[in-house]
Design goal:
3 copies of one chain form a homotrimer. Chain A is of the alpha/beta class and 350 residues long. Chain A has 3 domains: 92 residues, Udp-n-acetylmuramoylalanyl-d-glutamate--2,6- Diaminopimelate Ligase, Chain: A, domain 1; 213 residues, UDP N-Acetylglucosamine Acyltransferase, domain 1 (3 Solenoid), CATH 2.160.10; 32 residues, no CATH class. Chain A has 4 helices and 38 strands. In chain A, the strands form 5 sheets. In chain A, strands 6-9-12-15-18-23-26-29-32-35-37-38 form a 12-stranded mixed β-sheet, covered by helices on one side. In chain A, strands 7-10-13-16-19-24-27-30-33-36 form a 10-stranded parallel β-sheet, with no helix packed on it. The longest helix of chain A has 16 residues. Chains in contact: A-B, A-C, B-C. At the A-B interface, strand 21, helix 3 and helix 4 of A face strand 2, helix 2, helix 3 and helix 4 of B.
């Protein structure tokens, strides 16, 4: 991306409380302190990297207001209340360049069925398919090669990136952002075993996604057996996550990559699940509960709890048991020594 | 979806052995007992929810024949041999509305290479690509944006949902159902390490999928190094599953979401794998064996066995060890106490 | 695929040091020793299968130069230095038939924005979308339904299979091979928690992929928060892998299916990760380190180390602890017996 900011332009964006030094460089990129070259802007977002400030070659460095040092020649320190927030402001400016506002209208290569409703301010990009009865809201964007099935509803300002599939009857709220390859509304995995064969249980519900939800690349959300699979307002889901049929995810949850949630499980609001965690079916995870990465949850989790391990148990207990497990070789030896002293039969400790 | 059934229409579908009460409501939706509102139909599918029957606001409730209570005003009980089966009959009717029979023919936006054979009763939807030599069977449906590669064969009555990719030379049986984003026939992951580089081992086999197989969204099945990767008749595979090259999956297996099966492993018939399980390469899982969710299987599993844990071991043993593992803090303390009593050196138990 | 080789043609390809027997069959397929039928070619690639040679029905068998037996009637043994290498030569010949060299040019159904640069020798297949400013290098192939975003660069000789998505500003080196459904450049998963809501941290970096990298079906690689997510030259990544934002993967690494790598983690060169392994964020995996399948890595790993388990620890220690864990029932009983002998309070061992 073409980045080009003068020192004055950067200062105008971040509004520093003070500055030290100066640079004549044009800023052409952002980089971590250790990676930065002249022409880059960098920042101290984590105190652990403080020693790198003095060595960085960045032309501009965003620093906390209490940072003490002085910059070398042709380097500018901008002191701000929160360097991360200041950086985010610069990034937001860059984001507008990376993703320019699309032009409203339907690309001539898109295939739109009669009876689909597309708002005048919406953008339907090249090679999208929109089936009958679908509704595309105001300022929604279907970037390219997106599929929207019969009767599905895409809320205003939502953004579906390339290759997204929203199957029939599913409903997206406002400002929903689906990264490439997301599948909303595949069939749930339900079969009855009858005379030696798995007979399909029809999956005739749908998926409902609340306002301001973001879903990561190639994540899948299955339609309910009947009624709905739901994701609450403001929840963020990472890549390659599996949400099974009839799951209810609350509001403002964070679900990291490759998590799997089995059928009919309920996540209350503000739940956080670490990467690759797996949740069994028909389980309730209470409000604000957290699970560590790779946790395997097989029973209900209380509101506010922090669980870890497989099967998942309270975090502090899991950590203690993990430590003791690593000390098993020693424990077996000690028991052998005790048995020896008592004249009991010893068993080899390995 | 527009659902609209009178009480008489519902009764005609489920054929109750008896009924109690009555409703004048038109049924507009299906819902669980606790979620149902007037105008919904609900059912008692699991005895655990029996107390909810008396409180449900559903207008019609499907109940087992021996259910004892009486409905309130404007509510109808329909007593049936198996409420789940009765519900499935209603859902099957709804499914026809959700997925109307497609009109045969090739959409003008599809790109069909000369030399591809498409049956007259097949449907090739918008923006599909069919390469030379591919064969699309009678009544097969390629919904939209589907890719079928050179020489691939799609059996009669199969249904490929949007974004499905079937690469060159792969073969699908009859009535195969591929959910959106499935990839059949990507290259297997095979390299030889030669002079500091991974050289690709050509993957020139294909994938064969039997009749009545269903495969979930964004699942991947790799082509064999040579010969074939195979999935047997009637097997059902959930979302985001990885089937590596040369794997042979038997008939009527169930493979839950996010399972990974490494190269050349064999699943005999009727195997069931819980979600996120991982199977090593060159392993045989015997007929009817089961693995719990997140099991890590590194050795052969006998027919009929039920394994769990990582590494996977027999289920009952795994459960017992899991319980004992949680009691390690106590065990360390007891050994400390014994050592103390014997005058042996004690080590801190945490 | 139509395979058709005479015995003389096979011999010309593999250049045997000696041969025994003869066959008049035309070779129509490749198969493992136990599966082969007349008309197939087979090989002994692993000494463990030696007893199967005498029983195989293959018409031609590739064998190591020191193999002692004699073939039956109508079977030909070809003795070679390395049967696997000899087979790979045949497979390479087949690969050319499976994937014929595409004809350069842009398919009329592709949508190419003004300002995209496409080399004259490149192939842009049906229903691809190329946005403004994208650059497609010499001999690159976009097979079908591929998306290349604004300003992205596809290096010479790279091959993007159907449904691949390369988002804006991402850069691919030379001879990169992306299997179907790969997503390069989705947003990283970054939010700040502000007043009860997760506010998006703009993700304005990109993804850089080195020469000769291969990436498996439906794998996802996220763009950096700023700067870049990078995959080094010669690295091979399997299906359904998640590479988070700001990750740096070194050169010549092997990453098996369903691995997840969290944000800002660094893999040095020649790292090997087994299937379904998970790596936490901000971790460094040293050069040549290996992790077993399903390993959960939460701390740095030294160069050359081999770790296993969750949390991952050195492989030999993990194996020893796994064995001792399985012996816990016995240990609890022994401690009970000791306590009994000492007159201490006993606790039930299960």
């Amino acid at each position: 991306m073409q980045v080009s900011f003068s020192a004055a332009e950067i200062a105008a964006i971040v509004q520093p409380t003070a500055s030290r030094g100066a640079t004549t460089r044009v800023i052409r990129g952002l980089a971590a302190l250790a990676d930065a070259a002249p022409g880059d802007l960098s920042f101290l977002g984590n105190a652990k990297y403080k020693p790198e400030v003095a060595r960085t070659r960045a032309s501009i460095v965003l620093l906390p207001a209490d940072y003490a040092g002085e910059p070398p020649a042709d380097q500018l320190y901008l002191l701000v209340a929160n360097p991360s927030v200041a950086l985010a402001r610069i990034c937001a400016r860059l984001e507008q360049a990376l993703w320019p506002r699309p032009v409203p209208g339907v690309h001539p290569s898109a295939v739109v069925a009669p009876g689909a409703q597309i708002a005048a301010s919406a953008t339907v990009g090249p090679l999208c398919v929109i089936e009958a009865g679908a509704v595309i809201g105001e300022r929604a964007q279907l970037q390219a090669q997106v599929f929207v099935g019969r009767g599905a509803i895409i809320g205003e300002g939502s953004w579906l990136m390339p290759g997204v599939i929203v199957e029939a009857e599913c409903v997206l709220g406002r400002r929903v952002r689906l990264q490439p390859g997301v599948v909303v509304g595949a069939d749930g995995f339900g079969y009855e075993f009858v005379q030696g064969r798995h007979e399909k249980v029809p999956q005739v519900g749908h998926v409902e996604i609340g306002d301001d939800v973001e879903i990561g690349a190639n994540t899948t959300l299955d339609r309910a057996r009947f009624s709905r699979t739901a994701v609450g307002e403001g929840t963020k889901i990472d890549n390659l996550v599996q949400i099974a049929h009839n799951v209810r995810v609350g509001r403002h949850c964070l679900i990291c990559a490759q998590v799997g949630i089995s059928g009919s499980t309920v996540l209350e609001d503000y739940v956080v699940l670490g990467g690759q965690a797996g949740i069994g079916g028909h389980i309730t995870i209470g409000k604000g509960a957290k699970a560590g990465g790779r946790a395997g949850i097989t029973t209900d989790v209380s509101a506010g709890a922090f669980v870890n391990g497989n099967p998942a148990i309270p975090y502090m207990l899991e950590r203690r048991i993990a430590v003791l497990t690593q000390r098993l070789p020693d424990l077996f030896k000690r028991v052998d020594a005790i048995a020896d002293q008592l004249g009991l039969a010893k068993k080899s400790s390995s």
